[in-house]
Structure formats: C-alpha cells, structure tokens
Design brief:
mainly alpha, chromosome, nucleus, 35 helices, INT8 protein, two-stranded antiparallel ribbon, TPR_INTS8, 681 residues
Length: 681
C-alpha cells in the first residue's frame, strides 16, 4: 500500500461509521420497513421528506421509444409509491399544521387528491353537491380534509412573504424554482375559484353532528387489497382513527373563522361570522382541552384573532370588548392620543396582561412614525420604551439595546419619569423577594451607569431605592462608584484628601480602554463603550487594539454604520467573537455572537445574515470538538442549516470562503454523499 493510500485509509477509519440514510426504493422492496422506520425516535429521512420522495418518484414522466415525454404511467410501482406517501401522512394523523409547514402547495395538493381517490371520491365530482351524511365516514373525512386545506392555503397565500432575491444564475436551479412557482400559482388560482364551494362544504359539515374516521396505515393496507374483500370493513363506523363530532367542529370553525376574517377586509359584515367561529373554537378548546385533539391549533394566534374580532365588531352594547387594553391601544394609535397610550402601558406594568411581543410591536410602530419626521413622538417613544424596559426587568429579561441608546443623554425629566414607572410597577407589600431583587439590581446598575452626581442623588434618595436597598448595600454601591470613576466624589468628609482629587479625563479613558481590551462579557463591553462615548465623541474605539481583526468583506459593511457607538460595538463584538472561536473558547464566542446578532437584527438584514453564517460555523466547530469527536452524529437541525447555507442565493451578503469549505467538509465527514452529488458545483 502506498503512503498516500495509507493516509487515506487512516483518515476514513478514524471516524466511526454512521448508519447511512434509508433510500426511498428500500421501502418498495420490503413491505414492513416503513412502519419500522416511522416508529424510530428520530427517523432519517423524516416522515415529511419521505412523502416528498415517494410522490416525486411516482410523478416522474416517462420517455417513449420516439423520445417523447409521456405522463407518469399508472403501474404497480407508482401506485405503491402513492400508497406509501398516504401511509406516512396517516402516521402523522393527517395534521394539516404539520404537513403545511414542510410540504409545498403542489406536493400537498397531490397528496390530498390521492387521498380523495383512494377514499372512493369520483374524480371531477363537485364536493358541494355531495351529501356528506350519506357517505362512508372515511370518505366524508377525506372531503373535509381537502376543503379545509383549500381554505387554509388561500388564507396563507394572502400573508405577505419577503421575496428572496435570486443569487448567481444556475440554469437548472432557476428553471426548477420557476416551474414550482408557476405550478403553485396555477393551483392557487384554481383553489380561489372553488373557495365559495369549499366554504359551503365546511358549513354543511358543521350540521353533521356525528363522529367521522380518518384513514390509518391499517385501513390503507385494507383498501390496497381486493375491493370485494374489504368493502364492509372500510365503510363501517369502526374503521380508521375516530375524530369526534366536537373535534371536527373545532377544526372547521377555526378554518372558517380564518377565511371569514380575511374576507372581512373587503366586507366588514363578514367579521361577525369570523367572530362567531373563533369564539366557538375557543369555547370547544376550553371544554375539551387542547391535549385531547388529534390536530394542533395555534392558541396564541386564536387569541389574537378573537381580540381583533372583538375590536372590529365592537358596538355600543359590547362594553366588555371595548374595555380591553388591545381595543384601547388600537383607538389611541388611530386617534393619536399618546398620553392615554402611555397611561395604559404604565397600568399594565402592574398587571402584566399584554404580551411582550405586542408591547414591542407597538413601540416599533411608534419608532417608525417618529423616523418619518414626527419629532413630537420622540418623547412618547422614550416613555413607552421605559415602560417596556421596567416590565422586562420585573420578568427577568435582558434590557433592550434601544433603552440604553435612549438613555445615552439622561436628564432630570427622564430620571423623574423612570422613577415614577418603577414605583408604579411594583407593589412592595405584595411583591415577591425575586421581584424586589430584580428592581433593586436595575436601580443599582442605573446609578453605576450615570456620570452626573445630581442624577445619581435623585435615584439614591428616592423612597423606592431606600426601601429596596439596605444601608450596607447603599454604602457598598457608593464604594463601587468611587472605584469605577474617581471623578465622582461621594465622600462626606469635610476635608478634601489626596484620593478625592478628580482624575483627568485621559486617565479615565485609558483605564476604560484597558478594561475594554480584556473583557469578553458582551454586557460589560457595551457599558464600557457607552461610558467612553459619554466622555468623548471624537474617538473611534474599534481601533483601540490592533489584535481586533475583522475580515475585509465584513469590515466594509460595519464601518459604514453611521452611529459611532453602534459601529464600535458591532465591530468589537464580532472581532472578539472571531478571536474566541480561533482559540477554541466556544462558550464566550457564542455569547459575543448572540449579542451581536441581537444588535444588528434591529437595523441591518445584511449584517444579521453575516452573524447567522458565523454562528453556523461556530456550531460546526463546537460539534466537531465535542460530540462529533466521539462519533456522535450531529443533530438534524445542524445538518439542515449547513444545507441551507450551501443552497443560499442571497445577493449582496458578504461571504467568507472558509464557511462554505467547512460546510462541505462537515457534510463529507458525516457521509451526506447523496446530497452533495445532487448539488451543482
């Protein structure tokens, strides 16, 4: 054996073999293999991917002797492949929520049409003309499933989707994407034409008031046999998975509510129908519990729908709906009554009834209006941001960067309002010790971040501060502040000592720069930079250390950020993260990258993608140095992200060659050969 061959042998044998992915054709050869595969804890390939593979193979066109393309033949092989796809869907209990998340519109359309076909629904039959009560339970359920999907797909297609810009031209990939897009558009056009019929079918289903059954793997096996042998069993009331009448009503009401809500944008009266359906869904879930259902309903989305319907359909005799915080905020934003808006947020800080995401969305909307030239909103933005920040503090969440930016230039008025919010957000008599500790820590950190002694005194002499911090804690805080900044003299001695003489600004800046170089804590780095920028606006602190290196492709984008503080913070977090990655300090690298990702997400989609790419590379290194070294296969999520990176075609995103190389090496190491051979070089 040559030296080269020996090296190759050593390289391949150093990593333990991982079981290869089961190929689609193996399920054709061994009948029992599918059920065994689906029972595994984490089957590879996963069920939804199997559906795609089976239907893709079954729908491949053939070529005759004259080299003419023919439709897929209706032979035994293709019929078995379609049956296998149906069995996988039956294993997933026909949960449309699961299927829609992973299957494209053309694939799901083919799957549900196969379900109609095997359930003995004659092709071309208008479902609205069929009497569901007279049909076998599994046939009626197949029609319901199809028409529910029609409605859901129409609703889903009405939501705005950010278009992905095409990357470098690759003819076969572009052709495939274009064909799928055209096919989806054609299917949607047909579905929209039959929307009215589907609504009538579902409204009719609400009057059935009887249990139905959906196909299982067993009933599908029976249907695949001779029809004469199984007619009695498949059409009886005990075949398949039982779906109760109330569960059917719950499914149908939710889907009808969604389509009525969508139609309400052009016909306000339809919102009453949507409200009726959503409130009935909510009632049924409350009665039976969501855990007893064979399908999933997004209860947060349902609650949002109910709130929206309550606002849109509120009338003079519907005082309870009118009184909800959501409707009040909606009216305040609409009328420009921002004083009452702040009051609602302030009152909610005590009850915490508004979800954090909703609070953030209102603040984002206010910021957008302020950026469009409405300067009067700057104060409103600050006040709502303070309310949100105090709410976050009480719930143990991280303080948002937006608050720190707004507090770069604190004033007496700002501190006054902040202390008012803090006082009205906590009831000291009933508050838990955890809440008191969080509020105390927030006020202490606020004092440590302030330069102006008068502002510090405003906080430290406030009634809330005195109640939350004991005497020894307050003394310790004063000592900390004296060590942190020699310029602030909180000493009560009448005679000035040598140590109370204020240090020069250059000495302070030098000390803080030294801390900035040594620190790997994102929070501390941000605090130091805020202090440095408060001292001088002339310096660029990303140049403090010549060891902070960022690739040129990233540097050009980062140095284009206009705000000096944000530019320094992004550059330093990324440079320190890359350095930690290089020395295999993956824990600190992850913290630094995560902080940088949170920061850039606010203002730059381009830098957000850069950070996601760097975090992917970090996760690859972390796995290879940890679980991968002992032969443990990487999680499917990581493999999917690696594939996603290699398939990404987003223009204008700065890319590092090393990330693509590591992604390919990662897939080669873990035997993803079939996937790699499918990719265009």
């Amino acid at each position: 054996m040559s030296a080269e061959a020996a090296d190759r042998e050593a390289a391949t044998s150093s990593r333990p073999c991982t079981p290869p992915q089961t190929s689609w054709f193996e399920f054709l050869l061994e009948e029992a293999l599918l059920e065994q595969h689906l029972q595994k804890p984490s089957p590879d390939p996963p069920p939804v991917q199997l559906i795609v593979q089976f239907l893709e193979q079954a729908s491949k066109p053939s070529v005759n002797e004259q080299n003419q393309v023919q439709p897929p033949p209706d032979n035994k092989r293709n019929r078995i492949l379609k049956l296998l796809a149906l069995k996988v869907a039956a294993h997933l209990k026909w949960d449309l929520d699961v299927l829609e998340k992973s299957l494209s519109v053309p694939v799901l359309n083919m799957l549900l049409n196969e379900l109609l076909c095997i359930s003995k629904v004659p092709p071309g039959t208008k479902h609205v003309d069929v009497d569901l009560a007279s049909l076998p339970p599994t046939t009626a359920m197949a029609i319901l499933l199809y028409n529910r999907w029609v409605i859901r797909t129409i609703v889903q297609s009405s939501f705005p989707v950010k278009q992905v810009k095409p990357g470098p031209p690759q003819l076969n990939v572009m052709n495939q994407m274009q064909q799928e897009k055209e096919l989806t558009e054609n299917i949607l056009k047909v579905l929209k034409e039959q929307a009215a019929d589907s609504i009538l079918v579902l409204e009719g289903a609400l009057k059935l008031n009887k249990d139905l059954y959906v196909h299982t793997i067993r009933t599908l096996d029976l249907l695949a046999m001779e029809p004469g042998m199984v007619n009695g069993e498949t059409e009886s009331s005990t075949a398949g998975l039982k779906i109760t009448a109330e569960e059917i009503e719950c499914q149908v009401c939710y889907d009808l509510g969604a389509i009525y809500f969508q139609q309400g944008s052009t016909n306000a009266a339809v919102h009453e129908n949507a409200k009726e359906k959503f409130f009935r869904t909510k009632e049924l879930i409350a009665k039976n519990g969501s855990s007893s259902l064979h399908f999933t309903i997004d209860e947060e989305r349902l609650a949002g729908y109910c709130q929206a319907c309550g606002i849109l359909t509120s009338s003079s005799d519907d005082a309870s709906q009118q009184a909800t915080p959501y409707s009040q905020i909606h009216n305040c934003m609409k009328s420009g009554n921002y004083q009452d808006l702040v009051k609602i947020f302030l009152e909610d800080n005590l009850t915490l009834s508004l979800p954090v995401q909703f609070r953030q969305s209102v603040l984002r909307e206010l910021f957008q209006k302020a950026q469009q030239g409405n300067d009067a909103l700057d104060e409103v933005c600050f006040k709502v941001c303070v309310c949100n920040t105090v709410c976050d503090v009480l719930q143990g969440e991280i303080i948002d960067i937006q608050f720190c930016l707004l507090f770069l230039r604190p004033s007496k008025e700002k501190i006054d309002f902040l202390l008012e919010v803090c006082s009205r957000s906590i009831n000291l008599e009933n508050a838990s010790e955890a809440l008191k500790r969080r509020m105390a820590a927030f006020l202490k950190n606020l004092c440590l971040g302030l330069e102006d002694l008068q502002l510090v005194f405003m906080i430290s002499s406030h009634e809330l501060f005195i109640k939350l911090l004991k005497d020894d804690e307050r003394k310790l805080l004063i000592d900390q502040m004296r060590k942190r900044s020699p310029r602030i003299n909180l000493c009560t001695k009448p005679v000035t000592s040598f140590y109370d003489i204020p240090a020069s600004a250059s000495v302070n800046i030098g000390q803080l720069e030294h801390q900035l170089i040594l620190s790997v804590d994102p929070w501390r780095i941000r605090q130091i930079l805020i202090e440095l920028h408060g001292m001088t606006s002339e310096r660029q602190f990303w140049t403090v250390s010549n060891k902070w290196e960022v690739p040129n492709v990233y540097g050009n984008v980062i140095l284009g950020i206009k705000d000096n503080l944000t530019r320094d913070l992004v550059y330093i977090l990324l440079a320190k993260g890359l350095h930690c990655c290089a020395i295999k300090d993956f824990v600190h690298a992850k913290q630094l990258f995560a902080a940088c990702l949170e920061l850039v997400t606010e203002f730059s989609p381009k830098l957000r993608q850069v950070m996601l790419n760097e975090m992917l590379l970090l996760d690859i290194y972390t796995h290879e140095a940890g679980a991968g070294a002992s032969g443990e296969r990487p999680p499917s999520d990581l493999i999917s992200r690696v594939r996603g990176y290699l398939e990404m075609r987003v223009p204008d995103i700065p890319l590092r060659q090393v990330i693509a190389e590591e992604c390919v090496a990662f897939l080669l190491n873990w035997r993803e050969n079939e996937y790699l051979t499918m990719q265009v070089p």
